[in-house]
Amino acid sequence: MRTVVVSTIVSLDGFVAGPGGDISRLPMDGSFDALNLERLRAAGTLLLGATTYRGMVAYWPAVAEDPTVSPAVQLDPSVAELHRETARRNAELPKVVVSDSLTPADTGPWAQTTTIVRRAEAHAAVAALQEEAGGDVLVFGSRTLWGDLLPAGLVDELFLLVGPALLGAGLRAFPDGVPAHLRLRDTSRRPGSDSVLLHYTVDRARPS
Fold it and tell me: Where does the record place the Bacterial bifunctional deaminase-reductase C-terminal domain (predicted)?
């Protein structure tokens, strides 16, 4: 059995993006980068929505070639190898993208490691991934996707990096009416960061 893990950054007032999908005001500091790499090291498959996938395939291949193109590396050259490893793992891992709009032409340099699943088939595809052996099935971002999988009982764990930003409006982390009971497993905070990592498991033993 594999674990479906959601990893995302969220503002203190509960948004994963601002109006129009703007994520620029979320505090993506070193804690965010380190969390992403930690989760990638434990993953066997990336499970993504189309918007997140398009953003990643447009960004990470260039970083794999030259980490200095990353704004984070330009600000702090010491994180260059962290970003290089992140880019390499993003490229190498098998990727399952749930989308009715994405086509093979959109997969670019990740064509050989990307499988597109239509939304009507998503629940069955994720359930099948859970039954396999291997590393975690990792969901980065992709709130529309995991907001659908969570009430369907297809999410096992959530890593929520709560950052010190108030967006006021935008895309809420949890859609209205999503039924789930979460059990806190751990909290942590990296030295020098004002973000706090909350690690939850989904408790299916209790009624929602």
Answer: 2-191
pTM: 0.91
Cα dist from 95 to 18, 31, 166, whole Å: 26, 24, 32
Alpha-carbon span 140 to 58, nearest angstrom:
15
Asked whether residue 208 is assigned to any structural domain, the reply reads no
Number of domains in the chain: 1
Would residue 20 count as lying in a domain? yes
CATH code of 19's domain: 3.40.430.10
Cβ atoms of 53 and 97 within 8 Å: the answer is: yes
CB 200 within 8 A of CB 157: yes
DSSP 174: S
Tally of CB atoms within 10 A around 82: 19
**DSSP strands (E only) in the chain:** 4-11, 15-17, 43-49, 95-98, 114-117, 136-140, 157-163, 171-172, 182-188, 196-202
- Are 117 and 46 within 8 A, CB to CB? no
* Cα separation, 170 vs 9, whole angstroms: 14
For residue 181, name the pLDDT band (cuts at 50, 70, 90).
Answer: confident
pLDDT at 23 over 70: yes
In a domain, 207, yes or no: no
Output the pLDDT for position 193: 87
φ, ψ (nearest 5 deg) of residue 30:
-60, -30
